[in-house]
Design brief:
Blueprint (H helix, E strand, L loop, with lengths): L1 H15 L3 E6 L7 E6 L5 E8 L4 H12 L12 H8 L3 H13 L5 E2 L6 E7 H7 L5 E5 L5 E4 L2 E5 L6 E5 L36 H8 L13 E5 L7 H11 L9 E5 L13 H11 L7 E6 L9 H11 L7 E4 L3 E2 L5 H16 L3 E5 L19 E2 L7 E7 L5 E2 L6 E7 L5 H11 L11 E4 L2 E4 L3 E5 L2 E5 L2 H21 L9 H4 L2 H4 L2 E2 L49 E2 L1 H10 L1
Parallel strand pairs: 10-12, 10-13, 11-12, 13-15, 15-17, 17-21
Antiparallel strand pairs: 1-8, 2-6, 3-5, 3-9, 4-5, 6-7, 14-16, 17-18, 19-20, 22-23, 24-25
Helix pairs in contact: 2-10, 7-8, 8-12, 9-10, 12-15
Length: about 575
């Protein structure tokens, strides 16, 4: 009798188990990672599930309508509630996924304003069971990074239309991209009614002269310029004050506010100051005179080294009634290190914030056509999130008369995202000029980046009371963000909307006319000498060349080195006022 009942119970349990289907799978771990051993069954995993969003194509249409100068709805940015209505999963989606989790003894928590992301913690043994996965400890030989990941996982067939992805699964920690990106100082040439010292070192005065940036104080308190901070990079007020006293004597009392996420902090011991954080803060506060600047320090509560921080900062801003008008981030990674599903989810998050009226800018990367950092490759490596069509990617230039592309400036074409409509004619024109050069090394149907560029070589900074120089697109993004913030200040003072998502405007005839086309230089990604200020162990060999080519070459019109060109403040302001 006991055996029969036991057998009956086993049969009933087997029948009750849902039919599973493979949801995501990769053939092997990313280069450099090796499988060590099965993950301990009792190790807890901080899991996240992305639910199918309600009407993401409708949100895209709404974003373009408020961002395209040719639209009657231009500048009429969406409210928090309007964006959430597009994103919030359907009730039946939420119910189905929660029922699956409850059946497995899991109580999930919503971690996004629209409820499209759920979080929970479970041991490896349960994750392996309910997702038919094989969580393994992987180690990265070069950096010593270790991670518990699986090469594939399954979900119930009935939830295929309800679950977009489960994380962490097939996306591995980024070993270099979420690091400060610094390049070797390269001599510059020429002057152009700028201080003579700008031929060797870039300061706020150089940039004000070169791009016509005003020193008049901004007046609009609602116009917030936000700076992302990751990987325990801290922005130091004492260093900022020293920087301003030396280089902005008319603005020596300027400061910034701090917002903390995911257990983040911003200690003010000068020895803890981060090169990246100080660079970003000194060249936002130092250029965007009077604009309220906020440093958002994202901690590592997720203890994963992956992209949770990128998601959490956007969700935190989406939860605010009045998010910043500009957000600049000097971090990123190679596109091929993140799953296509997760990249799409993050890109959709940028779409949401852009629809609210926030301009999102990212540094394009410092490896030329080799990606985030200079490295060996056989085909060109696009960076993320620069390949996302709902943000503005910023490349780097150098030199004064004329400006030319910085050789490290990452640019290329996404393998995940298609060419957006606003960019179609510009990319087509470039590819016609390119001909068969680099044939087979990049995706001819991918979204091109960067969109714009700005100076990025030999920026003078103060770190732990010491003055030095630093180079990289990490300098270019906060610089361009500062210029946009100053334009926004004037727009808001005139009763107009901030610029919001820039790209449809930038690629229009009016927008392109505000930029100086850069037609010299290329981006192989090679570095000729070690960085002047860096954590040099982050780049294994700065003498490597990028993909054994000269990369792409800057040319007339848009190109995947310098984008549409560098800013002219007066032209940009006049065009924005005329919209």
């Amino acid at each position: 009798m006991f055996s029969f009942l036991a057998l009956s119970l086993l049969v009933s349990l087997a029948v009750a188990r849902p039919t599973m289907v493979v949801h995501e799978r990769i053939h092997a771990a990313p280069a450099g990672f090796s499988a060590m051993h099965s993950a301990p069954a009792s190790t807890m995993l901080n899991m996240r599930i992305a639910l199918k969003q309600n009407d993401i194509s409708g949100l895209e249409d709404a974003l373009m309508a408020v961002s395209d100068p040719a639209s009657a709805l231009y500048g009429q940015h969406l409210t928090k509630e309007q964006v959430e209505a597009f994103v919030r999963p359907k009730p039946e989606t939420m119910a189905a996924v929660n029922a699956f989790l409850v059946e497995n003894g899991i109580n999930a928590t919503s971690i996004s304003p629209a409820g499209d992301w759920l979080a929970f913690s479970i041991p490896v043994s349960k994750a392996n069971d309910i997702f038919e996965s094989d969580y393994t400890v992987f180690s990265h030989a070069e950096t010593g990074t270790s991670a518990i990941r699986t090469l594939g996982y399954s979900i119930p067939a009935s939830l295929r239309g309800a679950i977009d992805l489960v994380h962490p699964t097939i996306t591995f920690p980024n070993t270099i991209g979420l690091k400060p990106s610094f390049s070797a100082p390269v001599p510059t040439v020429g002057k152009r009614q700028v201080p003579a010292s700008c031929s060797s070192t870039i300061t706020p005065a150089c940039l004000q002269a070169l791009y016509g940036i005003p020193t008049t104080r901004a007046t609009q308190s609602s116009n917030i310029l936000a700076v992302s901070g990751f990987i325990e990079q801290y922005a130091n007020q004492a260093d900022l004050t020293q920087f301003l006293r030396a280089l902005r004597t008319d603005n020596t009392n300027a400061t910034f506010t701090t917002q903390l996420l995911d257990g983040g902090s911003n200690p003010q011991t000068r020895s803890q100051a981060g090169v990246e954080a100080n660079l970003d803060i000194q060249y936002t506060v130092g250029i965007a005179t009077g604009v309220p600047t906020q440093f958002i320090s994202v901690g590592e509560n997720f203890k994963d080294g992956a992209l949770e921080g990128f998601l959490d900062i956007i969700n935190a801003l989406l939860a605010e009634s009045n998010p910043p008008t500009v957000l600049t981030t000097s971090y990123g990674q190679n596109e091929n290190t993140i799953s296509r599903s997760l990249a799409t989810q993050l890109c959709n998050a940028y779409m949401q914030l852009g629809a609210r009226g926030t301009t999102i800018l990212f540094a394009s990367g410092d490896g030329g056509v080799a990606g985030s950092q200079s490295a060996r490759c056989t085909t060109f490596v696009p960076t993320f999130p620069s390949g996302c069509p709902y943000m503005t990617s910023v490349g780097a230039t150098q030199g004064i008369n004329p400006e030319r592309a910085a050789s490290f400036s990452s640019g290329g074409f996404s393998n995940y995202f298609a060419i957006p409509s606003y960019q179609a004619s510009a990319v087509a024109a470039f590819k016609t000029r390119l001909g068969s050069t680099n044939s087979g090394k990049f995706n001819t149907t991918g979204r091109g980046f960067p969109d714009v560029s700005a100076q990025g070589v030999n920026f003078e900074v103060v770190v732990d009371a010491q003055t030095g120089t630093v180079s990289g697109t990490s300098a270019s993004s906060p610089l361009f963000a500062s210029i946009v913030s100053l334009v926004n200040d004037r727009l808001i003072a005139a009763g107009k909307s901030p610029l919001g998502f820039l790209n449809p405007f930038l690629y229009s005839a009016a927008g392109t006319a505000t930029l100086t086309d850069i037609t010299a230089g290329n981006n192989p990604g090679a570095l000729s000498s070690p960085p002047s200020i860096c954590v040099c162990s982050l780049v294994t060999d700065w003498r490597r060349t990028g993909c054994s080519t000269n990369g792409f070459t800057a040319t007339t019109g848009w190109d995947p080195v310098t984008g549409l060109g560098t800013p002219n403040f007066a032209l940009l302001l006049n065009a924005a006022m005329a919209l």
